[in-house]
Amino acid sequence: MRRVTFAAAVGNTVETYDYAAYGFLTVLIAELFFPGSQPGVALLSAFAAFGVAFVVRPLGSLLFGSIADRFGRKPSLVATLVLMAGATTLIGLLPTAASIGVWAPALLVVCRLIQGLAAGGEYGTAMTYAAEFTPRRKRGAMTSRVQIGSVVSLLLAAGVVLLLSASLSPQAMASWGWRIPFLLALPLGLVGLYIRARLEESPEFRALERQGRIPSSPAKESFTKHWSLIALVFGVAALQQIGYYIAFTYAQSYIIQLGFTPAQATLATVISIAVAVVLVAVGGPLSDRWGRWPMLFGLSAAMLVLAYPLLAALSSATSLGTVILTTVLLGVVPALYTSVAPATYIEIVPARVRATVFAVGFALAAALLGGPALYVSQSLVRMTGDNRSPALFLMFGALLSLAAAVVVRRRHPEVLTPDLPAHVADVPGARSTEGV
């Protein structure tokens, strides 16, 4: 189980690290790749390049989700990791606009598109793989451990950026220092590839193979028979996507715009993410005890109520201590929510199309809500002149997830399980579903 957990988590770590490294360097990337624009427009352009990766995530989810449901979880896990680590390394090698002009942002967008394609299948396949080794009574704990990899990678990316910002001059950071976080994706990816290449296939997929129940076209079956589950995954993922990227990525740029230094903004974000690691570890086991839907419902309701007061407090903060405290509080609900949601996705989809339905629903939420989160938040501030306005987008995500939690409640927990018969237990490493 430790090997399975680590193998699933390492890919999520690389994926989120790659995205986070870009997010924490957005202000600098805007200057290097969009230098001819006004500062506000350049930042929006950099956020748009961040968000473009999410546009192709649904395509990646169809491709790699179908591979996982048709040929096995392992091939999909290996392929997504190679693409993600490779594209991120290339970003670290790109010439800037000062060297090649408009080709620089164009190549940046191409690399981001490759990242998005890989990310579309990574998260859902990794969570599916880990959960299919785990009894339902421990599934929340297991998936939250995998989710810790994503949060730790945020901490790693923020820590690297903070260390570079503190040790290098602004000139050195703009010249070559910004490349280091992206180039680190190569050794991370090689370690992950070594681990995943040695994986066994999940017991539930092996059982489906034995029974001849592998779908010939997972994508077709997902959209014709399970479109409502895709919509439900989308709704559950709404707050996870928006909350995650606003609290742990956009917050850094937001604090800089309030007049604090990049080092101070990154420090506040690092502390917030460190607290989030603990909360993610706690949230999953709590959902095993209390149930998924009560926590989804309660956390969505809390975000709906607290989003605006928290952004108001952060926007008016005048000291670093206040900024840190408010940033930490802003991340509490997203951290707990992101520890509960993965087990929910697993339990509402039948095993034969689990990777595809999960990946597509989650990728659509990423493309329509998570990816645009930075751009939408910045646009709201720019259009309204109100630094509290990003709270409106957070509240929108909370409202969608609140409604999804109500639907999850109507599905009795006993039917939120794999659809394999009881004799799957004779497959080594598999769990019994007798009585389900």
Automatic annotation (TrEMBL):
InterPro entries cross-referenced by the UniProt entry: H+-coupled_symporters (IPR051084), MFS_dom (IPR020846), MFS_sugar_transport-like (IPR005828), MFS_trans_sf (IPR036259), Sugar_transporter_CS (IPR005829)
Source organism of this protein record: Streptomyces luomodiensis
Subcellular location: Cell membrane
Transmembrane residue ranges: 40-64, 76-94, 146-164, 176-195, 227-247, 267-286, 293-311, 323-345, 357-377, 389-408
Keyword Signal appears in the UniProt entry: no
Domain Major facilitator superfamily (MFS) profile: 4-415
Membrane topology: Multi-pass membrane protein
Superkingdom as given in the UniProt entry: Bacteria
Family annotation (PROSITE patterns): MFS, SUGAR_TRANSPORT_2
Keyword Signal: no
Sorted UniProt keywords: Cell membrane, Membrane, Symport, Transmembrane, Transmembrane helix, Transport
Location (main, coarse): membrane
Protein known as: MFS transporter
